[in-house]
Amino acid sequence: MSNEKEAKFGRRDFLRKVGVGTVGAGATLATPLISSAQADSESEDEKRKARYRETDDVKEYYRVNRYPA
């Protein structure tokens, strides 16, 4: 019975250490992303311009999926 208790404790201890390591790795990976944030470079006119273009690919998509023309 003592072997069972040791095995359970070891598994729990392992899971605790893995959880702490995951949190530390996540914080390390997130740090460069936060520091490299940049402001939006588009002007107001560029933000408002039309971006949708009905190309041949778009027309084909509509045709295949039976959207009305």
Automatic annotation (TrEMBL):
Check the record and name the InterPro entries matching this protein.
Formate_DH_TAT-contain, TAT_signal, TAT_signal_bac_arc
Question: Where do the segments described as Disordered lie?
Answer: 31-53
Q: What segments bear the compositional bias annotation Low complexity?
A: 31-40
Q: What is this protein called?
A: Formate dehydrogenase region TAT target
Which source organism? Answer: Bradyrhizobium ottawaense
